[in-house]
Amino acid sequence: MLWPTLVGMSESKRVLLAAPRGYCAGVDRAVVAVEKALELYGPPVYVRKEIVHNKHVVTTLEKRGAIFVDETQEVPEGATVVFSAHGVAPVVHEEAKQLSLKTIDATCPLVTKVHREAVRFAKDDYDILLIGHEGHEEVIGTSGEAPEHITLVDGPDDVANVEVRDPDKVVWLSQTTLSVDETMETVRRLREKFPALQDPPSDDICYATQNRQLAVKQMAADCDLMIVVGSRNSSNSVRLVEVALEHGTKDGHLVDYADEIDPTWLDGVRTVGVTSGASVPEILVRGVLDYLASQGFDDVTAITAAEESLLFALPMELRKDLKAAGMSDKMKHDASSLEDAGQLH
Ligand code: SF4
């Protein structure tokens, strides 16, 4: 896409580009799982909920033959369905079984880890305080593992409403994509109320969420404006805007595409921070950088907070079928992957 260039305006205008940004290992795996399923079984392949919370990813997969549904009951009997990276409650597996669906579970292994923690603490009869956003798919899935034992705590202000059966047997867990700082504040308030509160066995907020927030924190104070590429229903993307504003950026916005940038946001701005949520293909960030360059922001400096190399294997049921068909089960985008096929709208 070509943008009008403002000649002679580039002096002292710069972009700080966060790293890491964009795709995490769980999103990559989920998207490749749908791509491979389409290749192997042929369209349509049904996907329960958005495979990841990104408009561009969903519309691109739709064009290739994926059908996104809200509930398992919308999938025709005997068809193939992929469960999204956010995870599902056990009842959803039951529903799929009743409809004789072929299921591919693309739940991120780091979400599965939280599910297992919930099951284990419920078995030991703990009250589990799940810090997360009400209505988020991941929270619904995790809560479904032990509904009798889990109480949702939706941020620090919700702590006042929390009641437990035995204050000496209580543990907190969390959604994987929260603000680290806000979650710690929620835990601090919970611990004031329940001094015996136990911590999760390991961090529930995942490495990708933490690293993307860390990079934004490192550059926030130097930015007049932060542009976060991501969809409005993407929890980790929304958090990145909040983190930027909390750490000194004057103005911050979430955009799905470069053409959502309002040129007036750039008025008087010298430094623009750019990052993207964990469900965002890099091509969308490139679109934003191209637009900014056309407006004189062509001096781009990377701010690297961490290196990431994690890669998850594809879901086991899919790997088995790929192998049987003599197809590659490697977690690698092929030439037609979203990264290359994405078109800016
Ligand atoms: S954001 Fe974290 S938990 Fe969610 S899919 Fe990515 S790696 Fe997994």
TrEMBL record:
It comes from the Bacteria. The keyword rRNA-binding does not apply. It catalyses: isopentenyl diphosphate + 2 oxidized [2Fe-2S]-[ferredoxin] + H2O = (2E)-4-hydroxy-3-methylbut-2-enyl diphosphate + 2 reduced [2Fe-2S]-[ferredoxin] + 2 H(+); dimethylallyl diphosphate + 2 oxidized [2Fe-2S]-[ferredoxin] + H2O = (2E)-4-hydroxy-3-methylbut-2-enyl diphosphate + 2 reduced [2Fe-2S]-[ferredoxin] + 2 H(+). GO terms for molecular function: 4 iron, 4 sulfur cluster binding; 4-hydroxy-3-methylbut-2-enyl diphosphate reductase activity; metal ion binding. The active site is at residue 138. Its cofactor is [4Fe-4S] cluster. Binds 1 [4Fe-4S] cluster per subunit. Pathway: Isoprenoid biosynthesis; isopentenyl diphosphate biosynthesis via DXP pathway; isopentenyl diphosphate from 1-deoxy-D-xylulose 5-phosphate: step 6/6; Isoprenoid biosynthesis; dimethylallyl diphosphate biosynthesis; dimethylallyl diphosphate from (2E)-4-hydroxy-3-methylbutenyl diphosphate: step 1/1. One of its GO terms (biological process) is terpenoid biosynthetic process. [4Fe-4S] cluster binds at residues 24, 108, 206. Keywords: 4Fe-4S, Iron, Iron-sulfur, Isoprene biosynthesis, Metal-binding, Oxidoreductase. The lineage of its organism: Bacteria, Bacillati, Actinomycetota, Actinomycetes, Micrococcales. Pfam families: LYTB (PF02401). Belongs to the IspH family. Its EC number is 1.17.7.4. Isopentenyl diphosphate binds at residues 53, 86, 136, 234-236, 279. This is 4-hydroxy-3-methylbut-2-enyl diphosphate reductase. Catalyzes the conversion of 1-hydroxy-2-methyl-2-(E)-butenyl 4-diphosphate (HMBPP) into a mixture of isopentenyl diphosphate (IPP) and dimethylallyl diphosphate (DMAPP). Acts in the terminal step of the DOXP/MEP pathway for isoprenoid precursor biosynthesis. Dimethylallyl diphosphate binds at residues 53, 86, 136, 234-236, 279. It comes from Marihabitans asiaticum.
